[in-house]
Design a protein that fits this description.
CATH class of the largest domain: Alpha Beta
CATH superfamily of the largest domain: Type I PLP-dependent aspartate aminotransferase-like (Major domain)
Radius of gyration: 21 Å
Helix content: 40-55%
Order of helices and strands: HHEHEHEHEEEHEEEHHHHEEHEEHH
Shape: globular
Number of strands: 13
CATH architecture of the largest domain: 3-Layer(aba) Sandwich
Structural class: alpha/beta
Number of domains: 2
Largest sheet: 7 strands, mixed
Length: 396
């Protein structure tokens, strides 16, 4: 691999130099008011990025997986029932975590490439007359398949059934890159991590808790220590953590959130949509298809691209690394060897995306796929040129 080339994996993502340098700072007293000047503004900015006026924001030294565990252990008890769709590797892993914690998971098996089947959620919730389901799990953006699910529709299904379950949303590869509406969608716990839309190294689990979710900590009986949000709340009140925080990453998070808010959230979302659309134009020009079954499911942060039957898609990823020093994502789980993934989130521009498209194209031609060299690049160029012209016209 080459440190000079951008990466096209769906996380960790490319880091702007200024944000990388913000993580590189001298040691400070992490129990001092100085740390509070990093901690509290960073939390406030995350709340804005979640589009919430009320979410309690918690930031743990961890990853998205730790965020999942934080959501479960602070709100649920052994034997509780949760409702979850299994439509990709990361929803599968969250289900596995629930089962390891002794939760009863009502699994809605869903083909990989499809989104959350909200009609089946609605039926399950309506049938649950005794309200045994305590939480509904939803993966907003399934990173393994490049599928975006409709969280607002999940909330509508819950409301239509007049069901009191909590709504937990995995936004690891969507938050800070795609529109996420914590308050409007009635989310109770949102989970993300530092290494994707926030353009930082891995190392922070970032969560928003509704007041209902915070209140659930008083009855939840699953064991928790490191991930106890009540301990964290007490620490925050004193400009501190209940243990040693990742101060450098927190300083990077402060600058990352300031950078995103300065760009403007709607501009951030539009940029990701534009870049993703250029990648999709290239895929069409190659004569290939996305793993996501229909356009309404297309992710704006990662494209999982199906290769022809009998071709090992992983060979594109290894060839790109070995010959061109560029990183793409392999297929995971049920789509291993069937797709390769282009991550186009975080610190990404049209021009950077073109370099990834060109590299993927060279690899496929090198490996003998029936693809015309330059076809995908040209299709993406045409799209980007048109979208730039439209943006200039709109700004005039």
């Amino acid at each position: 691999m080459s440190f000079q080339n951008p990466v096209f994996i769906p996380g960790p993502t490319n880091m702007p130099e200024a944000i990388r340098k913000a993580c590189d700072m001298p040691t400070i007293d992490h129990r001092s008011p100085l740390f509070g000047k990093i901690l509290h503004p960073a939390r406030a900015n995350v709340q804005k990025i979640l589009k919430s006026d009320t979410a309690a924001v918690f930031i743990f030294p961890s990853t998205g997986t730790g965020g999942w565990e934080t959501a479960l252990t602070n709100t649920l008890s052994r034997g509780d029932t949760v409702l979850a769709a299994r439509n990709g590797m990361f929803s599968h892993r969250w289900i596995d975590m629930c089962q390891r914690h002794g939760l009863n998971v009502q699994i809605v098996e869903t083909p990989w490439g499809q989104g959350i089947p909200t009609d089946r959620y609605a039926a399950a919730l309506a049938a649950d007359k005794d309200h045994k389901i305590k939480a509904v799990l939803a993966t907003h953006n399934e990173t393994a398949t490049g599928v975006k699910s409709d969280i607002a529709a999940v909330r509508r299904a819950m409301d239509a059934a007049n069901h009191p379950a909590l709504l937990f949303v995995d936004g690891v590869s969507s938050i800070a890159s795609m529109d996420f509406q914590f308050d409007a969608w009635g989310v109770d716990v949102a989970v993300t991590g530092s290494q994707k839309g926030f353009m930082l190294p891995a190392g922070l689990a970032i969560l928003g808790f509704s007041q209902r979710a915070v209140a659930a900590t008083t009855t939840a009986q699953l064991p928790r220590t490191f991930f106890d949000i009540n301990d964290m709340t007490k620490g925050y009140a004193n400009n501190a953590y209940p243990y040693t925080p990742a101060v450098g990453l927190m300083n990077g998070l402060l600058l990352a959130t300031e950078t995103l808010l300065a760009e403007g959230l709607e501009n951030v979302f539009a940029r990701h949509s534009r870049i993703a659309s250029g990648v999709r134009a290239a895929v069409d020009a190659w004569g290939l298809h996305l793993c996501a079954a229909t356009p309404d499911l297309y992710s704006d942060t990662v494209s999982a691209i199906r290769t022809p039957e009998g071709f090992n898609a992983t060979s594109i990823v290894t060839h790109a690394a070995d010959k061109y020093g560029v990183a793409f994502g392999v297929g995971l789980g049920e789509v291993a060897g069937k797709v390769f993934r282009i991550g186009h989130l975080g610190s990404m521009t049209d021009v950077m995306a073109l370099s990834g498209i060109a590299t993927a194209e060279m690899c496929m031609v090198d490996l003998g796929l029936n693809i015309k060299l330059g076809s995908g690049v040209a299709a993406a160029q045409e799209y980007y040129r048109g979208s730039v012209a439209q943006r200039l016209e709109d700004a005039a």
